[in-house]
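Hey, resending since the last one bounced:
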Amino acid sequence: MWRLPLFASTALLAVTLAGCGAKSKADAPPAPTPVEAVEVAAPGGAATVGGAGTLERRREMALSFRIPGVLTALRVEAGDSVRAGQVIAAIDPAGVDARQQQTAADLERARRDVERDKALFEKGFVSRQRIDDRQSALKAAQAAYDAARFDRRWASLVSPVSGVVLERRAQAGEVVAAGQVVARVADLSSPLVLRLPLAAREAARVRVGDVAQVRVDDLGAQPLAGRVTRVGEAADTRTGAVAVEIELSAPPPALRSGQVAHATLSVRAAPDAARPYARVPAEAVLEANGRQAFVLRFEGGKARRTAVAFGGFDGDDALVAGLPQGAQVIT
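The structure tokens again:
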């Protein structure tokens, strides 16, 4: 991850750090001391954050069977085009067929029991409780049959969208578990997006609609335009990063899902409850104590020690307040 500087380009300035002692008549004035200084950015102005992430289609699906079984056919390879409803894989249906036949027989028997006991109930030979029990057994048999029939539909795996196969993860003849990913499919009609993990502090400054410049190494230095469409509400439990989604406006056909891209986002400056802070290089701070710090401000050709409010360090920058926009501090 990189971060662009938020202050003006550095320049060599001549500043006179002269004492107040008496000068000899024969001595020439002391030569100015060259120093390096930067211009202070406007407090609360725009800033940038950046990072690297992975390009993906917004709709990418990991396809799996709902039931376990032996994979008898997998008819696609990575890169193949598929259409919605196309069968791409199948498992041996013998097990689910047997279960469906068994549940069908149980359902038929439960119906006969209900009809028989109804006739006996009308003659006074069985109780109302017996009829209620038979009705409950019939409902249970019907539910089991419906579940078996539903499972039979999952013996064939179909593509839910028209798109392309991104990955094939199994081979015919393998035993696959319920929920085991067999293939991954992308909907090519969905936008290409960049999933960008950002530190929580930086993600807090990102808003939906912020513009971004995206660069992919394989395409050279030409940036691609993007826009923030989603900001995650939860941080990753392992890394602490918050996912930010950037949608590319007009991605070239050469881009593929899984490519790594770098993005720079134009965002708001870091918020502060008390006052807006400007950014200066961390080396511009002479000393800091609590909420106060000192910098050397270049003014009128001289270096002046100036007190500023100190908001802490943020990466390579220090957050300070009390300097006017355009002021120059010596680094």
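The CA atoms of residues 114 and 134 lie 6 Å apart.

Sorry for the duplicate.
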